[in-house]
């Protein structure tokens, strides 16, 4: 029997489940009633998503939204409400844009500038050239041919023939598939590829600028007039080399067909965007419900408050924000918990989990930065850098619960291959079985703010959520609006989030901790990269 | 045994299938090769759909497109190429438009003016008011409250939770479900409802104008940022009473939520559209491949050339147009057929099958117009008016094949509950079994230009087509672009269309004819309408 399982058994056998259950029953019942019958989730959602809108890291709208959140926490009576700043880069604010075909016929196109694109300073007009380039070796073919052009940088395929459902809820079987133990492994080649791709995108921009191209024109990765403004995958906060516009697939392909069957079409583009070069700092928002026992540490709920900018940042991650804030509201209606309950609205998640990383560096543990690596490699390899050095605050964090998989209701939680915590998480979710939220699966889930906490051995978890239409069409697209959330899902998630926090804050037992991992340092990806790439 | 079945048996037993098959084999083989290996379908498609674009009935772009089609037919060597005009109404040309939220925050919205909306003469700005009105009795509640407002005329529901596939091809079972005999019946209440709805929409526009509203704002009937510019369902060619803008569901719902939870948002709209009040005539384009035997009559293929304006009119009905024109091109490569093969590119289909109706009135048969009915009822009841009076040309039309169900390949043909024709249609489709196009089903299919020909007892048929994503998202939306067609489907359909025309044009046997039907006259819907409606 491992140490963890022994620990798990210890409290299961030794604690007094009957009494414990009795103590918590009324509180849980209150939480369920408050969260379902007196919910304020949808009002909060409309204030933030309809009234304020998208919250790109370090944008002016993100500042407005944080002021709103801070005022909201204050009104609830939370304490220790403050911003915690970290270095990010330039803020980028999109004001307006346009994309039209001028010849062979006038046509409005569906488009969105790429984030951190420079402005065009008015309408620019030029002929398109279809110049697919996916590696540096392709530049030679186009050298001297791009001056003054609108450069379409890829060849489009055909529209999707998707026969999958747009909207989906998990079956029990879907969830069971997630209940599989898997050791975390590091693939240095994954780093390479991502870094090569990021590096290439920068080089492509620089090449287009050097060649005197007017703009880079890219195709949306989803069809159906969905646009995203994505495509850069290097660190945000840096201005792109040339104006970059993403076109809807339908509009992009039309240009390519026309260019290949006759005279190249002429298009007009405009991007009005401003940069904040003064304030290069982003910030997390932190707020507490102070606990009775200063020595008992704290439990924490978090969601990234920053969003992408194509929609209103509703499913990603307005939903998590609203659930965290509604859980806070519900819990303020209860007597003081034993442990402090901390709420974090992260920033910079979309640019690489920067907010939760900054919280770790400030409060929990440090990792060395290998200055022998290129800046981008330094940035990307941090999460695997060795050794990890505890800070005094490390032992105070007793549990962290994250929400960032769209607006879908909770179906359970990912134990992150950590069998030691399964019994206690199972016990805490049991009261929500009738809300269909009681599954604990061994599997990991990545890509959001619990990851770096997990990596340093803290009990940090992300809930299992019904997918709805999050990945099929909403994620980072112009469809990320409140319409695509579901009131009953947000209320259910708020109840479960509040219930888990409350039990974690008051439990005699603590979640067992993996402790500092002995993970290998990732070798410099550039040293092992294929030289012919 | 019915007369029709006797007739069917007659030629099946009496004709010489072996010889007939032998005669046609080489021609069919040539048609398949020419249509698959030397196809020009996609080039034609790009010229029309990418280069020219949408073709709203009697718009300037429709005129351009018809000039292109006439030149194309001439280049193929067809004869008797001409326009046949019919009275329609004003042409409407959309030049540009915009829709933005001004307060509580600046936001571009996805929108499309309703067809035949008057222009706004610049940008108009006003507060929204949510005033759901679905019957005349609702007007009283809003009288005196709409002056200067942007009037949202409905309450939105929730976004769809569609778990159906976006893209679909028929299984054999799907097609078998269509093989069911059903007598045509007339439901006068259907007329009523449609007429009431059309009448109401006109009255609503007049009410908004009388109340001094700035504009009517409607919600798209599909979510996912799809817009259509639809919503009028009365006869086209008439200018709406007030500027009318359709908003994407996501943008419409945001306005409603904001209006209902706080201060009503302010929006700005602009519609730049022009009317052609001089030329009120629309026209069909007709072209022939002249047959050897002037007494043998003609067979015909048709597709409506007019389109809706939200996209490029690709699936509806660029696809049918391209297939009819490619079939013509293929058949010009063969020696003269026995019967003339006529090609019709209809206009006014979107406004009520007006082009094919005009062809009937000019060449085939007349129906009385009941002038005691309201104009709209006269217009809508024509297809069921009694008696039908043959014209000399009635007997000359031996077969009509229509294509207008999107870009999907042919899977067979609808016999329209006419068992008499099934054996011959089955025989003619047999060579295309390996192209999966050989199913003959008894079922009817409506809503396009074969319907009025069927109603007067002529052998007029529409093919069974794979749905693809036509009805799920493309039909009349801003997604109706060439992207959503499939090259191999258009080539297959062109081959089958050409093959059916060729066999019908050269067959010793003729399709049996239902003859003039003894159908009841539809009673004046207004006399039986519920007075409380």
Radius of gyration of chain A: 24 Å
The computed structural class of chain A is: alpha/beta
Shape of chain A: globular
Helix content range of chain A: 25-40%
**Main β-sheet of chain A, in a few words?**
8 strands, mixed
Would you tell me the overall average pLDDT of chain A?
89
According to CATH, the homologous superfamily of the largest domain in chain A is Zn peptidases
Assembly of the depicted chains: homodimer
CATH topology label of the largest domain in chain A:
Aminopeptidase
- Total domain count of chain A: 2
Number of strands of chain A: 18
**Spatial strand order of the main sheet of chain A:** 1-10-12-11-15-18-16-17
The number of helical runs of chain A is 16
The CATH C-level name of the largest domain in chain A is Alpha Beta
Uncertain runs of chain A with pLDDT below 50, 5 residues or more? 1-22, 521-533
- Amino- and carboxy-terminal Cα gap of chain A: 48 Å
Major interchain interface with per-chain residue totals: A-B, 50 and 50 residues
Query: Could you tell me the strand content of chain A as a percent range?
Result: 15-25%
Folded structure, characterized:
Two copies of one chain form a homodimer. The first copy, chain A, has two domains: 3-88 and 280-506, Zn peptidases (Aminopeptidase), CATH 3.40.630; 93-183 and 192-275, Glucose Oxidase, domain 1, CATH 3.50.30.30. Helices cover 35% and strands 20% of the residues of chain A. Chain A contains 16 helices and 18 strands. In chain A, the strands form three sheets. In chain A, strands 1-10-12-11-15-18-16-17 form an eight-stranded mixed β-sheet, with helices on both faces. In chain A, helix 5 links the parallel strand 5 (124-130) and strand 6. The longest helix of chain A is centred in the middle third of the chain and has 23 residues, at 188-210. Chain A is globular. Chain A starts with a helix and ends in a 5-residue tail after the last helix. At the A-B interface, helix 3, strand 3 and helix 8 of A face helix 3, strand 3 and helix 8 of B. Chains A, B: One of its GO terms (cellular component) is lysosome. Chains A, B: One of its GO terms (molecular function) is metallodipeptidase activity. Chains A, B: Residues 284-498 form the Peptidase M28 domain. Chains A, B: Residues 1-20 form the signal peptide.
